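Protein modeling request. Please complete all fields; requests missing the sequence field cannot be processed.
Requester role: graduate student
Desired output: 3D structure, token encoding
Chains: 1
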Amino acid sequence: MSAIQKRLDKMEIAFDQEEFVVIDMGTGYIKAGFSGEDLPRCVIPTCIAEQIQEVDPALLNQPGGGEIKPKTNYTFGNGAIASRKTHDYYQPIERGIVKDLDRMEKLLEHIFTNELGVKCDKINLLMTDSPVNSKSNKKALCDLMFEKFKVKSFSLMNTAVLSLFSTGSTTGLVTECGQG
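Delivered output (180 residues):
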């Protein structure tokens, strides 16, 4: 058991307000968890691997068989890194900006369902955002959260501002270094 997991197991959590899911989307790693907890529940590499399964040619010639589409298998995080030789490998975030929204959607779905075990329509979501992100990218991310995931509420916050607030300050100088 990791040191992080040991700390999580010992934590006593009491929420007197509504619970928020917090997701810090970085170029190298995505960190996700719940407000009020000391540590994220999951920290995974921001990557996805895809493998399209071949369709059996015998199935294509079945009478009345309709169109058969190939199925795509997805692997996320460390699993994606391990399967780079056999799958197509993608990193949907570059320099803190979501560049591939479709694959980012798959990665977020994995985090909500498999890593955090939450139903999206029941959550309030706080997500970090790069200071250099464009307004159109922010809008696309908001559309994804409300239209696809149907979250109750959504806040997209600048990472530097959140870092400053985490110290209890409202003014100061923040220097950030990330993979991108």
